[in-house]
User: Fold this.
Amino acid sequence: MSASTADRTPVLVGIGLSTRREEDYNEALEPMDLMLEAVAAAGADTTSEDALQGLQYIAVPRGRWQYSNPAGEIARRFNAPDAVTVLATPGVLQQTLIGQACARIASGQAHTTLVTGADSGYRILKAQIAKQRAAERVQTDEPDIYMQPKDELRHDVEKRAGMQMPVGLYAIMESAYRAKQGWSIDEHRDRLAALWSKFSEIAEKNPHAWQKKYIPAAAIRQACDSNPMQAFPYTRYHCSTWNVDQASALLFCSAARAEELGIPRSKWVFPLASTESNHMVAVSARADLAACPGAGITGRAALQAGGLTAEKVDLLELYSCFPLAVETYAAEMGFPLSRDLTVTGGMAFAGGPYNNYFLQSTCRAAELLREGKGRNALVSCVSGIVTKQAFALWSIDEPTRPFLHADLTAQVAREMEVREVLEDFSGEATVAGYTVLYGRGQLPKGVLLVDTSDGKRAMATTEDAALIAAMEADELVGGGVRIADNQLVSIAAA
Assistant:
């Protein structure tokens, strides 16, 4: 072992990916079995028969399933009775689990760790179509560590306005981003469609993608029966595809353990940095809806750990639940939107298994590094409505510095400006961001975030057809409106 590679250096040695598509839900694997399949694949990927022996830490992000301790079942299946088992709910960054898995190795607490997850959304969908429920086994044990966010992801005014799903809040921020760039509504929609069309082209070449088909920009932009509007300007094609059956697993060892197991160096990928912010601010309280300072702070820290600049990043994966996440992360980090911003093809096309996509994208980035498509990869993570931010930096070159595991929450909190949000508001205000929500069998509903004259924030809605038409035809951000009892009454003439 070279002097630059210490015994405790964490190394990614095993990658397991599973994508299944059964039209009969009875034939589909439940999420637990998908996870076990991915873990076995990660072990086999190392070429060592003993790689999974002695697992000491197993972490799983919760999907749309009810298992109480999937990590415990994995430990039993692979003969690791002493492994620390972890279950993390949505709202916990998936990179947090990877960062902790690597940090345990770097600190000497463990020599072998595993992060895995799965979701069977397609199985759920097919069962629903058959008016049945996809069964799953019952677990009765509990994990050693249960992780959940400390705050609510949504403000009460957002819930009251019908913002149960993230798409509406992302679309509101998208409008603020559009206005900040000075783009017209039509120009902006063209840009979004072109960006996502390029993502579909990348997914077409990804062997693990759910949808390997190029989608022209015009088909993404235009709402129709097969591509309905979700939250203006987002059509279904702009949104994460979560009705997928996908699983992934990442197996880590210390460098010493990897050498002891005889795992070939061609399999080694080094985590250089894991940086994150867990500062939580509801969308309606964010002073600048078009910015994401946490992405810049965590992203730059990750690059600095590897002695890199944005221009020197070979492979890049920006979390892509909706275009706004990609755009703001790129802006904060100085990445042009013209470069490849995903290695998978993004969540709309490669597939966005609920609370597990980041593991999928990390596996794909490592796979491409092994194939010689680059020497480093920067992978970003989002939790909530770009509420929490994280980055991971990977390299096939031996690190010259210790692994960085940094929680930058305090720094992000200092730099993020917030606004007081009013529960009830009537009066004149300035539009900060807005969208129109669409739902099957429901009337469109306009939703606006507005700034009051005394620097506070409020949310208003409308179902008035004329006002909604104006919201989609003309730029409202920065313009005046009149609100009465949280309802949009009128829009000021331009």
Remarks:
- Residues 228 and 440 are 9 Å apart (CA to CA).
- The mean pLDDT is 96.
